[in-house]
């Protein structure tokens, strides 16, 4: 059974950093693109970033503004989201999701409709 588990969420002060992890079980991540999404209280879920099978293909939402970095370690079956210079508006539940990619050079899209398997989320709170 395909399963994704997010971790690494915490309470952090503005300007701080966190690294979120998305660990896969029941399947190998090698053939999947992974996306990170978030949902703040009272708001719709939005895309944050994605990484294709080819780790050199990554996408970011405009609001990331160079603060976040997505990466993958297929040996550990895990994708990471390094978040720096965190702002209070980054407060949200962060989810990862997976989509199978048939070809190596397929790009990923930071759109939840592209993704079919989701984790349960991890809470990130940015507050002083």
Give a short summary of the structure:
The chain has 128 residues and is mainly beta. The chain has no helices and eleven strands.
Q: Helix count, per DSSP?
A: 0
* Mean pLDDT reading: 95
Q: What proportion of the residues is helical, as a percent range?
A: under 10%
**N- to C-terminal separation?**
40 Å
User: Which class best fits the helix and strand makeup?
Assistant: mainly beta
**Main β-sheet: number of strands, strand sense, barrel status?**
7 strands, mixed
Number of strands: 11
Using brief descriptors, characterize the structure shown:
mainly beta, 128 residues, seven-stranded mixed beta sheet, globular, four-stranded antiparallel beta sheet
What does the model show?
- The structure is a single chain.
- The protein is mostly beta strands and 128 residues long.
- The protein contains no helices and 11 strands.
- The chain starts with a strand and ends with a strand.
- 0% of the residues lie in helices and 47% in strands.
- The protein is globular.
- Strands 2, 4, 5, 6, 9, 10 and 11 form a 7-stranded mixed β-sheet that branches. A 4-stranded antiparallel β-sheet has the order 1-3-8-7, with no helix packed on it.
Blueprint of the fold:
Blueprint: E1 3-7, E2 11-12, E3 18-25, E4 32-39, E5 46-51, E6 58-60, E7 68-73, E8 78-83, E9 92-100, E10 117-118, E11 122-126
């Amino acid at each position: 059974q395909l399963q994704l588990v997010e971790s690494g969420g915490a309470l952090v002060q503005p300007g701080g950093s966190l690294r979120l992890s998305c660990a896969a079980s029941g399947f190998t991540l090698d053939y999947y693109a992974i996306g990170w999404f978030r949902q703040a209280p009272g708001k719709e879920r939005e895309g944050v970033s994605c990484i294709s099978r080819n780790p050199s293909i990554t996408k970011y939402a405009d609001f990331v503004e160079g603060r976040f970095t997505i990466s993958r370690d297929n040996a550990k079956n895990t994708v990471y989201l390094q978040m720096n210079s965190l702002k209070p508006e980054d407060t949200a539940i962060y989810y990862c999701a997976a989509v199978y990619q048939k070809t190596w050079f397929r790009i990923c899209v930071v759109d939840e409709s592209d993704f079919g398997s989701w984790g349960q989320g991890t809470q990130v709170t940015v507050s002083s």
